[in-house]
Amino acid sequence: MTECDYCGNDVYGDEPVFVMEEREFRRVETGAFCNYACLSAYIDDEGLADGAVCEVDVGEE
Ligand SMILES: [Zn+2]
Prior knowledge:
This protein is of the alpha+beta class. The chain is built from 1 helix and 2 strands; from the N terminus they run ββα. It starts with 16 loop residues before the first strand and ends in a 15-residue tail after the last helix. Bound molecules: zinc ion (ZN). The site of zinc ion (ZN) has 7 residues, from loops. This is MYM-type Zinc finger with FCS sequence motif-containing protein. It comes from Halorutilus salinus.
């Protein structure tokens, strides 16, 4: 079984979502979550998205 990094439940009991990061040009799995809700909560708790948003051009013509 693979435990959810957020809640610790088995991710395969739900709709699993996996996170990968690039490390030295290789993809390395760095997280497993039950679903996007656990992933989102984990990101909020860890502050992983703070100040890291890509600039999105919201198409004002
Ligand atoms: Zn979970």
